[in-house]
Amino acid sequence: MIIKTANLNLYYDKFQALKNVNLSIKENLITGIIGPSGCGKSTLLRVFNRMNDLIKNVKITGSILIDKKDIYSPVYDLILLRKNVGMVFQRPNAFPISIFDNVAYGPRVWGISDKKTLIEIVERSLAAVDLFDSIKDRLKDSALSLSAEKKQRLCIARLLAVEPQILLMDEPCSALDPIATGKIEELMIELKKKYTIIIVTHNMQQAARIADDVGFMLLGELIEFASAKKIFTNPLDKRTFEYISGRFG
Amino acid sequence: MDRHFDEELHKVKKDLLEMASLVEESITKSLEALKKQDIKMASEIQEIDHQIDKFEIAIEEQCIELIARHQPVGADLRFLIGVIKMNNDLERMGDHAVNIASYITYLIEQPRIKSVSNIWSMAREVKEMLNDSVKSFMDNDATRAQKVCERDSVVDEMRDETIRILLTYMLEQPETIGSAIPLLLVAKNLERIADLSTNICEDVIYIAQARVIKHHAEEKEK
């Protein structure tokens, strides 16, 4: 287990967004989190790299262990956590600088200034997302000139440059067309060999296609967590079936 | 209010049940024609089989379209996969009824074998199994389906007994060989119908409980 939560509760002021969530996420798998809007799936995702810390009046109880260490412990190195647990967002948020500088951004923050090392990191990261060959002659161009799919690949490459262990993906394909979505999905399957991926998606078929394990959330509760095969062929909870079959509500 | 998809699933179930009742009619008629050696009645089986074949194609097309357009999951997916398999099995049963009816032509030309009551009790058992398998599908009743599966060995024993009786006839009264062989084939076809009823029940259990019981799969997993 790479991530383990126990009795996890999260409150925004008096509103309880996560209710007693207990789950175990396995290494080198894609774990899909599904559920209707407002069910707490993005909140849960943001717990894993403490992005919720940036929101006012958030209170968390219970424990979240990554590699058996409590990430909310006062002695836990937050900067190291953010390096170790990268995040990809709904809209590809490429920085308005060159493609090279986008990927080199993280390593530079971590103090790497040697040009040769930076070039190596940038090339390796872009190659890992299958982007290097198509843009190797345009590394000095603005990242904003790339297509939406390539921008999303670039954002993933930017994470890989700091060698994380876990990739959090919050609806990474919702701004992409079906062909671009297919390519990012293929990339995710490729990336899970080296990284642990947790993806929040509204697209049930996407979870069915690529996830190994799937968690279904409703009103802040983790209703069911099982293998994708189990969830999509024989879910135990009636609410899970109603949601995945579109009968929900 | 039911969703459009639920209405479509309901229609598939209705069509499969209608097809099953045609199969039951076809088997009943073929056995009756056999008993009465009624060629005219036997010829009606062919017409019923055409209707069964049309149902098979229509149901298969409906299932493929629903899978392609709705990408069903969970119980809906199991239902459609189960229906595709049952559709096949029912169509095969219709063919067995045609086979049984076709043997009447041979039997009419041969001296009658006096006592083969065993074949009629076997036919009764097989018809009951089919009837119960259809009911178990209609009511999504895994318990009833399980009981049908357990009856398959009874039919196997009845077939073996029928073969023994007919062999004795053939050995002791070689003039009955011409009648005994078609009756042996009737027994074989009846036994296959029982096997296919068992298959249907295995699919009912899969649809209702997501359990795979064929080939003793559960026992092997343990």
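qc> DSSP finds eight helices and no strands in chain B.
qc> done
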